[in-house]
Amino acid sequence: MSELSRAVRPRRVTISSVPYLPGLDGLRAIAVIAVMIYHADPGWLPGGFLGVEVFFVISGYLITLLLMAERERDGRIHLGAFWMRRARRLLPALFAVMIALAVYTTLFRPESLGKVRGDLIAGFFYVSNWFQIWVGAGYASSGDFAPLRHLWSLAVEEQFYLVWPIVMMLVVRRGTRRVARSVLWMLGAVVVITLFTSIAVHGGPVAECSQTPDAYWMLGDRCISKADSLYLSTITRSTGLLLGAVLAMLWRPVAVMRGPMAGRGYLLDVIAVLGLAGLALALVRYHFMVDDRLLEATVADTSLFRGGFVLTGLATLAVIAAIAHRRSVTSRLLGVAPLLWVGTRSYGLYLYHWPIYQVIRGVAGRPLSVAQFAIAMVLTITVAEASYRFLEMPIRRGDLGESWRRFSRRAAAGPRRLVVMTLSLVTVLAVVSGVRVATADLELNEIEQSILEGSSSVTDISELLADPATTGTTVAPEPTPTTIADSGDEPADPEPVAETTTTAPPISVAPAREPIPYLAIGDSVMLGAAPILAERGYTVNAQQSRQMKDTVPFMEQLRDADVFGQAVVVHLGTNGYFSEETLDAFLAPLADVQVVMLTVRGDLAWTDHNNELLKARDAAADDNLIVIDWEEQARNCVGECFAGDGIHLADDGQVFYANLIRDVTGQ
What is the pTM of this model? Predict the structure, then answer.
């Protein structure tokens, strides 16, 4: 057979061959849309992050099918060729986004270069998920400019792509017809992983490690979040990939159309409807973290870790099973043009949307407004389309060089020079940015810096509750005379006896406790203004992630210790819901002192609830309570008032905050 005839010979169709299934691109479209909505504002679609689980199941299904088809066709799995195809598919757009972000950060966010360096290195080596677990930068960490935090899921998939072909070589070493025996082992692994996550997840409040140590694992002196670890790690998130692989071994599109199910597409459509309904329910039902009103704390959604991921995977399998039947209605509906367009560009949409969101909102945890979301979508779609058309597809087809040669032949001299100059400029910027990233100092973000500076002006709880007796003056008592007499059967004639005196131990006399005239109790918002408040005579006790409920026993201890003086300023409620009962319990020890409370500011789920309780108590005309409407008054602050999250205080905001309190207390 000639070289030409071999080149044009079509590939042999095997039982595991993978025909193009447009419905899978439609399912990808649904998944990436859910993720983008969730990342814009979790309140819009609480379980939208499960779109990533759908991606995992699809990847497990397709990759396993491809590897089995290659084994049937060629008699072996070509590891090098497989990994090269994955690299050509994934690396060009990834490198493009990392270079663009290095340049952007160098030009516009130089203070963030040190922190971005770790994300860039982890992204380059596809270990972002483990890096985020180690540094505590999961999705629950919201204060940073974090343009590459979404790369964790790509790291999970790439680690799967690295290991799974080797596993499949062992599985199919005796032919793909016997792979069904491996299904039980894989399903067993899914069960074991699910049981582990069910046991390991912490169902109670989650705050700082020092406040809720049970929510963390200790690795040396480092606190490792259980919720982040279970959510981000490759092992605990492999259930979706394994379920997809199991379906590939049992449900191959070519085999389906040759078997008894060939004429029963309608039955699979019914199953697909149930699967889509299950996915829809998961997207609105599950959360990653929940602000529990009853516990008045942030907790992990235990139902997610105790079967939620697996149920989402099973629902996805139901849809894929129908898509794999080319005569099903599901396959045609999910393969419509709009979904097909989004699905074929889903990788780029996922890759580019998060950095664009971050550029718009500044820090990870700040929700986008509807207008910002619309702008972000226009930018994301534009960039993703350009990347798909001019970067990803030419490299995937292997004709990037030919495309450039065609452009050079057809384009005029002016456009050619413009392109060359642009590429040269990008290259220079990339090199300079790389050097800047490599040599940048690791700096705290503005929220961390504010909290650190405020911490030096805080009085610890132990100091407020210290027993004055331990620091009292010592007074020596008067000597006590003691007479020593002889003993015997008969009293002896009285004779002069010597008198000796002993001195009792010194007695510590406790001075009267001096009340603290102006006491300020708050969370990390007050912590930012602590230096100014301390300069003005306040004793400040503020703590990061503090909840009002956790402070009630502390307030009772302060009352019993006669600490309260002229006024107590309170700013709590930024970190979660508090109930009317908690507010009553908090204020009860303060019944005999002037109390000033500030409302909550921020785009938070509990802001309105907490502020309504405070304003209602203020309207009740309690003689000793004044409520400052911080949410309203903060709008009058001029200058650099807030950090990127819109909650914590910047320099001008700290002064404005302290002045508002001074206007009420006179201090």
Answer: 0.86
